[in-house]
Amino acid sequence: MTTATEPSAPLRNPPLILVADDQADVRESLRLLLETEGYAVKSAASPEETLVLARSVPADAVILDLNYRADTTSGEEGLELLSRLRALDAIRPLIVLTGWGTAGLAVEALKRGAQDFLEKPWDNARVLTVVRNLLALAESRRESSRLAAANRELAEAPSAFIGRSRIMGRILEEARHVASSNASILITGASGTGKGLLARWIHDQSPRSGGPFVRVNLGGLVDSLIESELYGHVRGAFTDARSDRVGRFELAHGGTLFLDEIANLSPASQAALLHALEEGRIERVGSAIPVAIDVRIIAATNAEIRQAVGDGRFRSDLLYRLNTIEIELPPLRARGEDIGLLAHHFFAQSARQNGKPLRGISADAQAALERYDWPGNVRELAHVIERAVLLATGEWVEVADLRLAQMPGSEAPGAENLTLEQAERYLVFRALEQCGGEIEAAARKLGVSRSALYRRLAKYRR
């Protein structure tokens, strides 16, 4: 039996909906509606039967009536059933259905764990929208629970690395392993992939965590200031040097120095840095007195640094000094299975910070996020979600709130070069783009059911 503290089982394909109502015509109508949309359906006529089914064949969502007695409108029996269902599973969507709803009863149902409240006679479109959105939200929560359980030792990893992809699991495991050493590390990857966050996390997991973490953005410094910034200077060393200045190497003594955008160093600055690393000491600009340094170097670049070495723009001996360990962070498009979890993480964070009482990200918006190419990587995703939370006017973040300007697959590839699977993938994403991300419209355009389109999206996003 699943308890409220255990992660729920993965979502079935197709999802199973349990309909609990004492009226046979209600059960039959909902069964036909849901099965037409591709869902599997189980029915129960009483609270006792509902609980037996909930334990033996755990459903992915439950639609339950609150009134099981003709002589009362208190909903007591239905509310008790609701509480017991929520105790069985903390994540499974519970949708209350009643023919005589009142505001007080709705509030009580929500307190006991219901996630939505529908009145008889229901609107079919609203029932399907509620079920679809709550299933998507529950699946995201299940994945988050499974990820936390499977990666407890990495629980303090930066938010940019939340996910279930194998590639990120391997990278974090490698980073955790090398954090305990004193080896120099070079982190490569496109802008926005989280190089600075990973550098900080490695420092926090290392024996140097009690020491300082000092970051220098070499891409933001003019060449004439780099030596003063890194090594410091003494009074009178140059114009405007009116007092002694401690450099970043000394500030990082006993800790970690993170050299971001290392490929931007000039040849002269590269030579000075190599000398400092080899000698284990630096000299402030204008001084001949050596200062011993004890720092761990973590460097990062979004440039093709080996190409820079081949072109003579970066010293090979300095590269060998910096990349005792090299970690390459993938672009977000290469870890597509992580997009949903990251999006919901950033959504929860932004909704809380901005005081927006939103339910979550709609299924259609989730599909749009997962087919977008993310040229700005995790940083762009975080910004898109924050903006969407601020712009959302309904209960859910919708496709229009995302304001995604670019979608992959908009240019038709040469058909003669495509496999059948590639051609289908192109047609699926092209239809979604033409329909503005609306699943139902895209399914009609393709001549398939909505559930069939969701299955294809799940296939091509793996």
Question: Could you walk me through the main structural features you see in this protein, from its secondary elements to its overall organization?
Answer:
- Helix 3 links the parallel strand 3 (about 60-65) and strand 4 (about 95-100).
- The protein has about 450 residues and is α/β, with parallel strands linked by helices.
- It contains 19 helices and 16 strands.
- It is elongated.
- The longest helix is centred in the first third of the chain and has 27 residues, at about 125-150.
- Helix 2 packs parallel to helix 3 and helix 17 (about 420-435) crosses helix 18.
- Mean pLDDT is about 85; it is low at about 1-10, about 150-155 and about 405-415.
- The chain folds into 4 domains: about 15-150, 3-Layer(aba) Sandwich (Rossmann fold), CATH 3.40.50; about 155-330, P-loop containing nucleotide triphosphate hydrolases (Rossmann fold, 3-Layer(aba) Sandwich); about 335-405, Helicase, Ruva Protein, domain 3 (Orthogonal Bundle); about 410-460, Arc Repressor Mutant, subunit A (Orthogonal Bundle), CATH 1.10.10.
- The strands form 5 sheets. A 5-stranded parallel β-sheet has the order 2-1-3-4-5, with helices on both faces.
